[in-house]
Amino acid sequence: MKSALKSGLLALAAAALPAAAYAHPAIGEAAGFSHGFAHPISGLDHVLAMVMVGVFAFQLGGRATWLVPTTFVLVMALGGFLGATGVNIPFVETGIALSVVVLGAIVALNVKAPLAATLGVIGLFAIFHGHAHGAEMPENAAGAAYAAGFMIATALLHAAGLTLGYLIGRAGERQGLFVTRTAGGIAAISGVGILAGLI
Q: How far apart (Å, rounded) are the C-alpha atoms in residues 41 and 60?
């Protein structure tokens, strides 16, 4: 079980490492991609929500394993477009914090929702996350490159969550469920802290 947890933490670290490589100043396409890539992994709220999406997808299994993360990334791109073009969506930051609470709670409680309902909830949260990414695009950034950056970073965080779910599952059904629920609970509590402005 310790080995599985260590591997899970290494997977999360590996997903975050490329941000350091893109943190240097750049212009045009490079600036767009580097800023876009760094944005999802620069905030605890985004990281927690994206990893929980991956863990949740793993818990659901079957088609949800790829449909849930794919839906999130695609709908998030729409949200990013709305944010970049100045379309106002109310309560974006609240929606992002709530996504951490809800997704963490879903993982902690091992919720098995119907796929259609799951994709609806995932899509709603993706709009908020995408809007935040798009609204904070630097003026000197190339839009398509910026979008590619935040979409790839998000997909990597989802992959880290899927990997984490898999590795925890290998620890055994009983221990794995406990660790997964604990991770979800910690994420949900962190989301409450973010929502309250304490984190």
A: 25
Q: What is the mean pLDDT of residues 8-14?
A: 41
Q: Is 0.90 surpassed by the pTM of this model?
A: no
Match 């949200």 to its residue by tokens: 79
CB atoms within 10 A of CB 144: 12
Rg (CA), the chain: 16
Instruction: Give dist(CA 39, CA 156) in Å, integer.
Output: 13
Residue-wise pLDDT for 22-61, tens only, equals 333 344 556 688 888 988 898 899 999 999 999 999 999 9
Q: How far apart are the first and last CA of the chain?
A: 30
**Domains of the chain, residue spans:** 2-195
Cα 188 off chain centre by: 14
On the 0-12 / 13-18 / 19+ scale of CB atoms within 10 A, 117 is exposed
